[in-house]
Amino acid sequence: MKPVRATPRRSLTWPMKPTGRRVWLVLHVSLSVGWLGGSYAMLVMGAVALSRTGKPLRPAAYDLLHISDTAIMIPGSLGALVTGLVLALYTKWRVLRHWWVVTKLVLTVLAMIFGYAYTAQGVKAALAATLADPGADIGPLEPGLLVGSVVMLVVLFLATVLSVVKPWGRTRGGRGSRSRSRAMTRLQDQQTAMRDTRPGSAGRAGVP
């Protein structure tokens, strides 16, 4: 009876070399930290615009908020997402095999949507209103931007904690993938043992 050959599953990705992994990891950490720092800077500028002493500085504060959003938050978020996906796809973690990776990906996408749909649009509206009149009343938009900056900062901080702690273990798909990998390894070991125990295999093994 012929042994069944183990057919490895084809994958769209391949293991990343250590040097490449370090380069992508440095890029990912740098962009993520820059995104987090930009969020904190926007929180500080929003607080200055909201304070009484900062009333004359409101146009400048919202202008800086707009520049920070355009030059730091948007490139930082896109860069963190792309480098994170590359690291997930081409290292042992993958995208959908560990709960911390899935959760971090969801938080990243939600933060990007929230930043564009709420924070960026609110900053543009506040800047347009205060350029015409630094003391203009923009209603709940001003404290709303401050709260939005706090929410963004908390979400990005949680994503950073997930990257360090890596909690919760594997997803259902990740457990299934590990089981298939172990089964494939056992089958390959059985095939090797069967070849080694065939009649005449020991004699052939000793022939130079």
TrEMBL record:
Domain of life: Bacteria
Annotated spans, Disordered: 170-208
Annotated TM spans: 23-50, 70-90, 99-118, 145-165
Alphabetized UniProt keyword annotations: Membrane, Transmembrane, Transmembrane helix
Ranges of biased composition (kind: Basic residues): 172-183
Protein name: DUF2269 domain-containing protein
Biological classification of the source: Bacteria, Bacillati, Actinomycetota, Actinomycetes, Streptosporangiales
